[in-house]
Structure formats: C-alpha cells, structure tokens
Amino acid sequence: MDFFDVVNNRFSYRGVFKEQPVLYDDKIKILQCATKAPSGCNLETTYFVAITNKEILNAISEIVPAVFTKTAPMIIAVLTENIITKCDVAFELEDYAAAVENLLLAVTACGYASVWLDGVIKPEQRQQKLRKLLNVKDNMVLRALLPVGVPAEAYPRKQKKSFEDRVSFID
C-alpha cells in the first residue's frame, strides 16, 4: 500500500478483533514508526508499551470495557514525559499526537486497525487503575491506549467533511 492509500484507508475501528495475534515483525515496524515522529527540540518525550499479555489485556478491558478492548490481541499504551525546553515550553502533547498518528498509519499499512483512546482514560479513577496496572512511573503521563488487531467485521467509516469545506488557498 502506498502512503496515500494508507492515509485514505486509516479509520477508527471500534469493533471486534479476530483472534489473531499481531505478528512480531509488524509490532516492531509499527513501534519503530511511532518513534520516528517529529519531536519538539528533539526531546523525544513519548514512550510506548506494547501489551500482549492476556492477563493484562483482560484487566485493561475491565477498566475500559468495550468490544475492542476485550478482543484486541495487543494494546499499545502511550506515555509522555513533561520536559521543559530552554525556551520554557514543553512539547509533550505535540510529540505524543505526532507519534500516535505515525503509529495509526503504520497499523493500517501492516493490515491491522486501531482506535485512539484518550478521553475514556482521562477520568482520575481509570487513570489510577491503569497507571498501577501498567506500573507507570511518577514522572510519566498515560496519554492514550490503542487496541490493535485484525478487524473481525466490516465497520462503518464516518463521513469526513469535504476537502473544500476544510481547505482554502491564499495565492
């Protein structure tokens, strides 16, 4: 699949995954793409934990109950570290967003699907449970979970606004 096909085929999958593991070589490719994302001042503040352990996956699905967390053969946790630059700014949010987009595109390129879960893990009670389960260090923030797998069903894709509605040119 060429780059533009990958971008056009990426979508948020919220359905059931097949009982098929994510291949080791694909895991490496996906996570390498995530680490290649741009990073403010090249501080590389984003970290990834690829979870395939069944007990941990089951525990995550109890904290964040959904068909896609219950059936995902792999969930990637995305963590950030807040590092302040010499200019007194931090880029952890920008770094994490760029890394997740690379990750989602790589997931698509490898023939899998995913969904970017951040809002559902923001409530403090869920955050605390997930941080404890994943042994997240105090200096890190758990930003997102991405369930990854092969879709078991056709899933409706949401209609995007038209190009003309979102893009203008100043020549």
Helical residue percent? 25-40%
Using only C-alpha atoms, the radius of gyration works out to 17 Å
Tally of strands:
4
Q: Poorly predicted ranges (pLDDT <50, ≥5 residues)?
A: none
* Largest sheet features: 4 strands, antiparallel
Globally, the shape reads globular
Mean pLDDT: 94
Q: Roughly what fraction of the amino acids lie in strands?
A: 15-25%
Report how far the terminal alpha carbons are from each other. Answer: 33 Å
Provide tags for this entry:
single chain; about 170 residues; alpha+beta; four-stranded antiparallel β-sheet; 4 strands
Structure description:
Strands 1-2-4-3 form a four-stranded antiparallel beta sheet, with helices on both faces. It has seven helices and four strands. It has helices at 3-9, 24-35, 54-63, 67-71, 92-109, 124-134, 163-166; strands at residues 46-51, 74-81, 113-114, 140-149. By secondary structure, it is of the alpha+beta class.
Secondary structure layout:
Elements: H1 3-9, H2 24-35, E1 46-51, H3 54-63, H4 67-71, E2 74-81, H5 92-109, E3 113-114, H6 124-134, E4 140-149, H7 163-166
Antiparallel strand pairs: 1-2, 2-4, 3-4
Helix pairs in contact: 1-5, 2-5, 3-6
